[in-house]
Structure formats: structure tokens, C-alpha cells
Write a structure and sequence with these properties.
This protein is an alpha/beta fold. It has one domain (2-275): Vaccinia Virus protein VP39 (Rossmann fold), CATH 3.40.50.150. The protein contains eleven helices and 13 strands. The protein has helices at residues 2-9, 15-25, 29-32, 40-44, 53-67, 87-99, 115-124, 138-147, 159-165, 183-191, 234-240; strands at 33-34, 73-75, 78-80, 104-109, 130-135, 153-156, 170-174, 197-206, 212-218, 225-233, 244-251, 258-260, 264-275. Strands 1, 4, 5, 6, 7, 8, 9, 10, 11, 12 and 13 form an eleven-stranded mixed sheet that branches. The protein starts with a helix and ends with a strand.
Length: 278
């Protein structure tokens, strides 16, 4: 997480301030992700969760600046002076659009207030052929409908409501699965939608043969929050993706390999998957 934060802050702060922050906050991966908890209940009881109102307010404040042209790009509530693209995500979206004659309908599960939409919409340049549908927590959907919804960007309270109104040709899961209490239950439910393509990005893995559960503490200068965070066994995770073929594997462009819990090697990556016709 140290590397992630400094890649974020490097975009907006002078080097001398970065050095001061590093000293003052003593960035340490073992302080950001810690523990190996036996249950979600145990971990969550020690956290201030992702549904905390301050997170919504920070994300909303930053993204409204992007919408109004006062900022270029937002990710995880942090403002940047240039757009940082996930090239694995971009190439995957382009492949799907190409196969569907430039028509792209994205079901962005856990897509916040539209960060990925605002990040990629101009690069994709699909005009009226782009539909971006976000399924999120109730408070995010309410804020999204109030401030960000448009003819191309829509917000829904449930997956079922989304697919009732749209026919997505790609499901986007970016940095969301590791923050769900029952990620495999959700993944199985989403796989049953039989959406032609799935893009998984910014997802946390280790090379262990079992998943493990940590607590992630967000540094206070971003916002004050903590929440349970899974690190998936890649071997176990891939086995769940039945009826889908892995077309592409790619490293996350925003997180890099690191070590937590003193000696545990972890990494973030993505996949492009295509449904197998049975």
C-alpha cells in the first residue's frame, strides 16, 4: 500500500512534501493490511466500514469536480491532474466493443459514483453506443442518481433491476470482490447472469492455496476508515470461474506486488473472461 499511496500522491504533491509525509505517516504495508482473521464478523467488529458516510462524501466531492471540469481524474477519492488508465481494462473493453460493433453495455458492480466511467468514456469514444450501469450500495446509488446520472451513466440498487432495463455484454468487477463478506456467493450469482464477457481488475491475490482475511486501514489523510479485505488464493479463485475462458491476464496498473503481515507476498491483477458456449 505504501507504493500505491505514493503513486497517488506523487501526482499532486512536490517531492519535499512527499518525503515529509513518508516520515510523518510512516507508511508501512503491515500497518495498512494486518491480521489473518477467522471470520468476517471478527474482522468487521474492529472496523469503520465502507458504508461510512465520510467515504461517500469524499468520493462525491472529488468526482463532482471531474464532472464539472474542475479536475481531470479521480480514483478512490484522490484527485489527479491527468487520467491514469488501466491498460488491461481499456484493452478488454475495446475488445468487447469491437466484437459487438462498437456497442458496449457495462454492468459495473461496485463502481462507486462512476470513477471508471469518467476515466474511460472519452478514450473509448463510443458516443451513443456506450451504456454504463452501476450497481452499488444504497447511499451511493442515491447520490449517483442525484448528481451523476445521465443518458449513458445509470445507477441501480440491484443486479436484477439493472439487467431488467439493460442487456450488458460485459460485467466489470474492479477492486470490489475483496471487500465483500461472501465474495464467492456474489461471484456465483453474477456468473449465473451469463453475461458474455467479464472483466476483473484490481483484485487482491496470493499464491497460497487458501484465502485469508485482513483489515485494511485507510491512512487518515485520505479519509478515516477501515474494513475487512480478502486476499484470494489465485488457484482457488480461478476454479470458480466455470463456464468462462480466460482470454487475458494482466497486472494492475495501480497496485504493485508487496509484502504484508511481515512476510506474506501479495499482488493485484485482472482477467478478461469470455463465456464458453455450452
Amino acid at each position: 500500500m505504501e507504493n500505491i499511496l505514493f503513486r497517488l500522491l506523487k501526482e499532486v504533491l512536490p517531492p519535499i512534501i512527499l518525503k515529509t509525509l513518508k516520515f510523518c505517516f510512516n507508511f508501512n504495508n503491515n500497518k495498512v493490511w494486518s491480521g489473518n482473521y477467522a471470520s468476517w464478523f471478527e474482522a468487521n467488529s474492529k472496523c469503520v466500514g465502507y458504508d461510512h458516510q465520510i467515504i461517500l462524501e469524499k468520493c462525491s466531492e472529488s468526482l463532482i469536480k471531474v464532472k464539472n471540469g474542475l479536475a481531470i481524474y479521480e480514483r478512490d477519492s484522490v484527485i489527479f491532474d491527468e487520467i491514469q488508465y488501466s491498460w488491461g481494462l481499456i484493452s478488454s473493453l475495446q475488445k468487447v466493443a469491437l466484437e459487438y460493433s462498437s456497442k458496449l453495455c457495462v454492468l459495473d458492480f461496485g463502481g462507486s459514483l462512476g470513477s471508471s466511467y469518467f476515466q474511460n468514456k472519452n478514450f473509448l469514444n463510443l458516443g451513443e453506443e456506450l451504456s454504463w450501469c452501476i450497481v452499488e450500495q444504497k447511499n451511493f446509488v442515491g447520490r449517483g442518481k442525484e448528481l451523476f446520472e445521465s443518458d449513458k451513466l445509470k445507477f441501480y440498487y440491484s443486479v436484477e433491476d439493472c439487467v431488467f432495463h439493460h442487456k450488458p455484454n460485459v460485467l466489470l468487477l474492479s477492486g470490489v470482490l475483496q471487500y465483500l463478506e461472501e465474495p464467492y456467493t456474489w461471484l456465483e450469482r453474477l456468473l449465473k447472469l451469463e453475461i458474455p464477457y467479464i472483466i476483473i481488475d484490481r483484485t487482491a491475490f496470493s499464491d497460497l492455496n487458501t484465502d485469508f482475511l485482513t483489515i485494511q486501514n485507510v491512512p487518515k489523510f485520505i479519509y478515516e476508515a477501515s474494513y475487512p479485505s480478502w486476499f484470494f488464493s489465485k488457484e482457488k479463485f480461478v476454479k470458480v470461474l466455470k463456464n468462462y475462458e480466460i482470454i487475458l491476464e494482466f497486472k494492475s496498473d495501480f497496485e504493485i506486488n508487496t509484502v504484508i503481515n511481515n512476510n506474506m507476498a501479495v499482488y493485484w491483477q485482472g482477467f478478461l473472461l469470455k463465456r464458453i458456449q455450452l
